[in-house]
Specification:
About 10% of the residues have low confidence. A three-stranded antiparallel beta sheet has the order 3-4-5, with no helix packed on it. It is globular. 27% of the residues are buried. The protein has a domain of 103 residues: Cytochrome Bc1 Complex, Chain D, domain 2, CATH 1.10.760. The protein is mainly α. β4 and β5 form a beta hairpin. The protein contains four helices and five strands; from the N terminus they run ααβββββαα.
């Protein structure tokens, strides 16, 4: 009889430890997502470029969905350099054109076909560290105004993981963003 109590006690203790571990993990995952939201929205201000505007207001139905499909975008003319103009932006503030070509704010939502849905956490972290699309140095570079140098490349892994965790929780938005264009207007 005492052996049964002992086995029951071990089983009960194990169950309690598992419940506490799962609750602690849930809290830590929730905390990770909250930290990610803080980093995405407040510290990195990702929405400043990745959420299109309608006039002066953000279009929150397109939160972090990047440059809208078929929206107008600026085209840089090298004669603008003589006037001291280095960069132009679209009315949505999601596309940018300069001597390097034209870049479009990416869709950061977890949409499978048009956003980060096919990416892995490692791809995201590597992209922020290296400045190459999907973190692969054989892919194209991530163009200005994305502040990879001295900003994202120096963030702690824990912070980038928190940002990734948060981005996985936002509403997926189907929005096919154009690939960057070179100075001649052709895809990189």
């Amino acid at each position: 009889m005492k052996k049964q109590h002992w086995i029951f006690g071990i089983a009960l203790s194990s169950a309690a430890i598992l419940i506490l571990f799962s609750l602690n993990h849930a809290d830590s995952q929730s905390d990770l997502v909250k930290r990610g939201k803080y980093l995405v929205d407040a510290v990195s201000a990702c929405g400043q470029c990745h959420t299109p505007r309608k006039g002066a207001e953000f279009d929150m139905s397109m939160y972090l969905a990047g440059h809208p499909t078929n929206a107008v975008y600026p085209k840089y003319d090298f004669s603008m350099m003589r006037q001291g103009i280095f960069m132009l932006t679209a009315p949505t503030l999601t596309a940018f054109s300069g001597p390097y070509g034209t870049s479009f704010a990416a869709n950061l939502t977890p949409h499978k076909g048009t956003g980060l849905g096919e990416w892995t956490e490692k791809m995201f972290i590597d992209a922020m560290r290296t400045g190459y699309h999907q973190g692969n140095k054989t892919n194209r570079k991530i163009l200005p105004p994305m502040p990879i140098k001295n900003a994202y490349e120096n963030m702690r892994d824990a912070d980038l993981k928190a940002m990734w965790a948060y981005l996985q929780t936002i509403k997926p938005v189907k929005n096919e963003v154009s690939v960057p264009l070179n100075r001649m207007g052709r895809p990189y």
